[in-house]
Every structure is written in structure tokens, then in C-alpha cells.
UniProtKB/TrEMBL annotation:
GO terms for biological process: L-arginine biosynthetic process; ornithine biosynthetic process. The keyword Transmembrane does not apply. One of its GO terms (cellular component) is cytoplasm. This is Arginine biosynthesis bifunctional protein ArgJ. Keywords: Acyltransferase, Amino-acid biosynthesis, Arginine biosynthesis, Autocatalytic cleavage, Cytoplasm, Multifunctional enzyme, Transferase. The record marks G189, T190 as: Cleavage. Catalyzes two activities which are involved in the cyclic version of arginine biosynthesis: the synthesis of N-acetylglutamate from glutamate and acetyl-CoA as the acetyl donor, and of ornithine by transacetylation between N(2)-acetylornithine and glutamate. It comes from the Bacteria. Belongs to the ArgJ family. The gene is argJ. The keyword Nucleotide-binding does not apply.
Length: 405
């Protein structure tokens, strides 16, 4: 099924019927800080949100709007989270929707509102208002990359992808942009993600697909153990591909395409973790169930001791099996095999929970690469799961010790 999925250029404007823009509104000193994505026609919409009980005003407004299951526009500012800002913050988030609706020709309830940045600071609404209007004037078919840049905070690189696949007698496109570098931990939300597609499908099916895919991708990313107040993943499906009603096989193919997009964005988020120098992929094999596999994978990827060892190129596999042991999964320690791998090679560190003789120099060389895979073979079943994380570096502390300045 995945062989039919082909990457294409264009980001969130690659699907038919979408335009986008990213502008500098003045929330940041120089960089773009306001993004706008618009569908030419009303789109089926679905979203998942942070489980943090402290929820930012834009997230609350978006949840209210998406009760209809329909949206036309997404507006997002970076540099200010509009979180913990009381009644004013709520009014400002609603005003963002009103201004966006006026500028793009839709209704306020058709607007998804998002913000990211510093918590506890009111929005400078004059700058926001001017920025939204400026972005509306610059909406274009090639504006997806600018939108991807405008939602970044401490990110060091843009995160965008688009793919095409045959579906319902038509070629459909699925695309996405994401923002995430710090305050990333599996508990959706973990970041901001805006997905677009021109497939025609029922909102209920779109919602089910998004939730299933998020659990296998974004909820398997961890950078620092913190879950933010603003995080959401939103998808708009405008039907402009003109496909026939989807069959059961088509729904499975769409979900595979959506998972491809979200998996790549999840990897990009993990690789761009604050201060990170290495991407860590944790693969768990032969678990008793997928739920057990996910518990182990997330625990290992999230272990500060494992992350620190990877940063220092120290093949301390005891930290890996320790994290698996406290994950909550019912593992049998006397069956676990552990491997480390990268472009520099592969080395088995343990068999049946006991150490194997290994070459320290080779193991260190493996861990000096920018992408490392940790594999745990539990030998208890047939289920598997993958999680993504990054190393823990001195720069992570530096970045977060002076985040507001």
C-alpha cells in the first residue's frame, strides 16, 4: 500500500484548493511570525488537542468552532502563546477569528485559531490584526513554505511534507506542516500540526483516521517530557480532488498516506529538539501487544539517562533496559535483546537480558552518528512500535534558561 504513496513538493498548498501565506507581523524581531492557510471551499475538519488541563485561549476557541466539523481557514501566530491570559486572551483569540474571516471571506466559526510562544503575555492585537490582513493579501499557491516558517519558535528548520496517492478513482494529495522543538512529550498534543488534503470524505471518518494516526506518530515523540498548553493537530479535507465515495480499502489507503505524512513530521520534530545533535529512533519488536510495545518505546526514548548517554556516545545499555523495566509494560527481563545501530554499523549489546561482549570503539562510533536506532526485542509476541526522541545536551539547558529573552 505504501508503494503508491509518492512525495511531492508544495507543502500545505500542494492539495487542490488551498492557498497559504506567512508574514512578519512584529511579534518577533525579524522572522516570520504569522501564518494563514485557506481552503477555497468549506472543508471537513477534525482535530486532537493537548491533554494538559491548562489550555490556551486559541485552543479553546478552536474546539468551539470545530464542533461543526467544518472549517475554511487556519490562522496561527508564533512568538506569543496567548495562554494563561484570562478573559482578555479568550476575547483576543475570538477576535483573531473575526479578523481572519473578514480578510478571507468566510465565517468566524470556520476559522481555526492557534498560537505558540511565551506563556502568560497578552497578545499585541494591533500587530496581530495588521499581520492577518497582510497575510490575506499574500495568499498564494506557493505560500506553504512561508506558512511553515511563520509557525516556528525555537525550531531551527521548517517541517513540511506533501504526498500523493491514488484514491477513489482520483489522485489525492495529503500535506502537512508542523512546529515543535521544546515542550514535546507523548500526550497529544505534542506540538502544532496543520494538515491539508483534497480528498472527499465524511468528517467522522476523517476524525477517526486522524486520531488513529496521531497515536502512532505524534504521540510517540518525546524531546523533554513537557506537554504544552497550546498543542493541537488539525486536518482540513476540502474534497477538491473529486474522488468517488471511499471504499473500505480506500479508507485504509488514506490512513496509510496520512500516517506517512505524520510519521515524517514526527521524525523532523524529534530531530529538531531544542539543543539536539542526534535523532534517536527506538524500535520495539515482538511485544505481547502494541500497547505494551508503545509503553516500552516511549519510556526508552524519554529517559534522560538514555538521552544523555547517546549525547556522550556512551554505550550504557543498562539505562535502556532499566527504562523498559519501569515503562509499565509486562516485560520479561530475561528475554530482552538490545541492539544499537546507525550508518556506522550495528552492535548487539545484550541477549536474554544479559551482557554480550562488544567492541567499545565500534559502539562509540555508532553513537557518534546523527541518527541512532535502539532496538529492543522482547520475544513475547508479534506486536511492534516505534518512538522518536533526541539526545539531551548542554544547549537544551541554555535555550530554556533564557527562553523569554
Amino acid at each position: 500500500m505504501t508503494e503508491d504513496i509518492q512525495p511531492v513538493t508544495g507543502g500545505v498548498t500542494a492539495p487542490r484548493g488551498f492557498v497559504a501565506a506567512g508574514v512578519h507581523a512584529g511579534l518577533k524581531k525579524e522572522k516570520k511570525d504569522l501564518a494563514l492557510i485557506v481552503s477555497e471551499v468549506p472543508a471537513a475538519a477534525a482535530a486532537v488537542y493537548t491533554r494538559n488541563r491548562v489550555k490556551a485561549a486559541p485552543l479553546i476557541v478552536t474546539k468551539e468552532h470545530l464542533k461543526t466539523g467544518i472549517a475554511r481557514a487556519i490562522v496561527c501566530n508564533s512568538g506569543n502563546a496567548n495562554a494563561c491570559t484570562g478573559e482578555r486572551g479568550y476575547r483576543d483569540a475570538r477576535e483573531m477569528a473575526v479578523i481572519t474571516a473578514e480578510a478571507t471571506g468566510c465565517e468566524p466559526w470556520q476559522v481555526v485559531v492557534a498560537s505558540t510562544g511565551v506563556i502568560g503575555v497578552p497578545l499585541p492585537m494591533e500587530k496581530i490584526s495588521a499581520g492577518i490582513r497582510a497575510a490575506a493579501e499574500k495568499l498564494a499557491l506557493d505560500g506553504g513554505s512561508d506558512a511553515a516558517a511563520a509557525i516556528m519558535t525555537t525550531d531551527t528548520r521548517k517541517k513540511e511534507i506533501a504526498v500523493q496517492l491514488p484514491l477513489g478513482g482520483a489522485t489525492v494529495t495529503i500535506a502537512g506542516i508542523a512546529k515543535g522543538s521544546g515542550m514535546i512529550h507523548p500526550n497529544m498534543g505534542t506540538m502544532l500540526c496543520f494538515l491539508t488534503t483534497d480528498v472527499a470524505m465524511e468528517q467522522r471518518d476523517l476524525d477517526q483516521a486522524l486520531r488513529a494516526v496521531v497515536d502512532r506518530t505524534f504521540n510517540m515523540v518525546t524531546v523533554d517530557g513537557d506537554t504544552s498548553t497550546n498543542d493541537m493537530a488539525v486536518i482540513l479535507a476540502n474534497g477538491c480532488a473529486g474522488n468517488a465515495p471511499l471504499t473500505i480499502e480506500d479508507h485504509a489507503a488514506f490512513r496509510a498516506g496520512l500516517e506517512y505524512v505524520c510519521r515524517e513530521l514526527a521524525r523532523l520534530i524529534a530531530r529538531d529538539g531544542e539543543g539536539a545533535t542526534k535523532l534517536i529512533t527506538v524500535e520495539v519488536r515482538r511485544a505481547a501487544s502494541e500497547a505494551e510495545a508503545r509503553l516500552v518505546a516511549r519510556a526508552v526514548a524519554g529517559s534522560n539517562l538514555v538521552k544523555s548517554a547517546i549525547f556522550g556516545a556512551d554505550a550504557n545499555w543498562g539505562r535502556i533496559i532499566c527504562a523498559a523495566g519501569y515503562s509499565g509494560a509486562e516485560i520479561d527481563p530475561e528475554r530482552v535483546d538490545i541492539y544499537l545501530a546507525s550508518r556506522a554499523g550495528c552492535e548487539q549489546m545484550a541477549m536474554d537480558g544479559e551482557p554480550l561482549p562488544f567492541c567499545e570503539e565500534k559502539a562509540a562510533a555508532i553513537l557518534r552518528e546523527e541518527e541512532i536506532t535502539i532496538t529492543l526485542d522482547l520475544k513475547q509476541g508479534t506486536a511492534a512500535a516505534t518512538a522518536w526522541g533526541c539526545d539531551l545536551t548542554y544547549d537544551y539547558v541554555k535555550i530554556n534558561a533564557s527562553y523569554r529573552t
